[in-house]
Write the structure tokens for this entry.
Amino acid sequence: MILHREYHDGSDNYRDIRADLELQETVTALEKLTARQACTFTGVGVAVRAPGENYVVGNNVHNELEGWSPENLAAELVRRGLQSGDQLTLVACWAGAEGGYGQTLAATLGTLGRDKVRVRGPKGYVHWTKNGDIALADYPTGDAIKRASKAQTKGEDAACLAYVQALKSRINAVILGLEQAQTATADALVRAFASERPQQGREAVDQLLRKTSTDRPLPADTMAGIVTAAQAKLLSSPETTRVGWNQELRSLLTALHSVKDRAAGPAAAAAEITTATAALRASLAQLWPRYSEDYYDAMRASCVSNPFDPAFQWEDHTSSTAHR
């Protein structure tokens, strides 16, 4: 059994996509290792007997693994057929730490009548690529790791910019295709969009607005020019800035499509957003293999050269029915 979360299908958040690509590589590696097919938490995966290994893959945040408390996951594993003497590996950061998720999970399995289940988890951070696991107490640094990170960031920046340009292109195509009677409504939408632009870098937008009187709608080419020149509002981080900017552009595209065709507009916008998002995901997917090899393999090499055995970073906890 290999359990993992659902993928963020349809998300245009580059961090969600990166997380999906890493998860996909982990799942594929475990499928190859075990010759078994993985499934999501909503799937029908069934636990296997030792010496076969069961895996649960996910993020451990505030002692919940993808939203599952140790107690709830224990009950779910029992429902999926986990038996006494089975083996389970949690591919989730800090799951093996003393007093942590894995230890609580093992204890709960004992109360549910599952004796001597070995629950293994990392004591710190963990990644699992096609070349195997990397369990470490802290992230190493080095020239190779820095180069890989820089190359990935450059590639992600380019892919995200292309996505924004694709959305702007579709917005402008809708604007330029509006009928004269529809321009007043579009004008209000574009002016509201323009008013939200940050002070820094909005000179081009203001210049276009000044060319037209406020008592009549902006010409279509002026509205398109405003969209082309518009820049994102800077929020608390690059990620939140991109998320907010993408949302603004998607909303404007949907609103303008609805102006053009109230009935069919939302579906037309959704189709165009889906196409643009698929292109973004494809671009980021092309970057992933090189990043994984350069970044994680350099990290693995750094850990191996460390005097502390990286295998020590995994910890086992065993369930017991003695105090049931």
